[in-house]
Amino acid sequence: MPQYTVYTVGHSDLAWDAFLRLLRPYQIEVLLDVRSFPYCNDFPWFNRDQLEHLARREGWEYLWLGALLGPLTEDGRVDYLAKEAEPRYRQGIQQLMGLAGERCCCLLSSQANPLASHRHHLIAQTILRYDIGVEHILPDGETCRAHADLFHGLQ
Predict the structure, then answer these.
(1) Among 60, 15, 73, which residue's Cα sits nearest to residue 33?
(2) Which long-range contacts (C-beta less than 8 Å, at least 24 apart) are formed by 13-17?
(3) Spatial distance between the Cα atoms of 129 and 111, rounded to a whole number of angstroms
(4) How close are the terminal C-alpha atoms of the chain, in Å?
(5) Residue 150: inside a domain, yes or no?
(6) Strand 143-145 relative to strand 133-137: parallel, antiparallel, unpaired?
């Protein structure tokens, strides 16, 4: 049994009201934006400044952690094993675990499908090793439990 659970969600092309309907059943308290670039031209409600305002209006704390937990390495590549080894990433994981140990947190990225997102293949894989549960909120509002990727972490 995990110590606690972290939720994840991808905003995709959702209207704000639809996004709220996805998250409300899970009593989210903190929305952790893990996008490296927290902007979305087609859906301005997912731009960092507006998202922070809208989230606070819902009673959620909003934190942008994309600089620490985004998918890009310090040299701008997508390499999950290298990213996991970076001190800034480990600092972000510690911050995430500290928050999630006290309040209900949800990681936000842009991809609706968690299997197409670093929130599953990077962040979830890291925190699963700390006995923290991860539930991906799917576009239909259901959740699926994250499991360890078979070869994650092997060099």
Answers:
(1) 60
(2) 13/42, 13/43, 14/43, 14/139, 16/45, 16/54
(3) 23
(4) 28
(5) no
(6) antiparallel
Tokens for 98?
């500290």
**Are 89 and 125 in contact, with CB atoms under 8 Å apart?**
no
Q: Which helix (H) or strand (E) holds 88?
A: helix 87-100
Using DSSP's 3-state secondary structure scheme, residue 77 falls into coil
| Domains: count for the chain | 1
Report the distance separating Cα 115 and Cα 78, nearest Å.
15
Beta-bridged to residue 64, according to DSSP, are 33
Q: Which two tokens stand for residue 70?
A: 């985004």
pTM: 0.94
Tokens 């092309």 correspond to 13
pLDDT tens figures, 27-86 = 999 999 999 999 998 999 999 999 999 999 999 999 999 999 999 999 999 999 999 999
* Type of residue at 25: P
Domain that holds residue 101: 5-144
Q: What is the CATH number of the domain that holds 115?
A: 3.40.1010.10
Q: How far is the CA of 57 from the CAs of 29, 51, 74, in angstroms?
A: 12, 10, 33
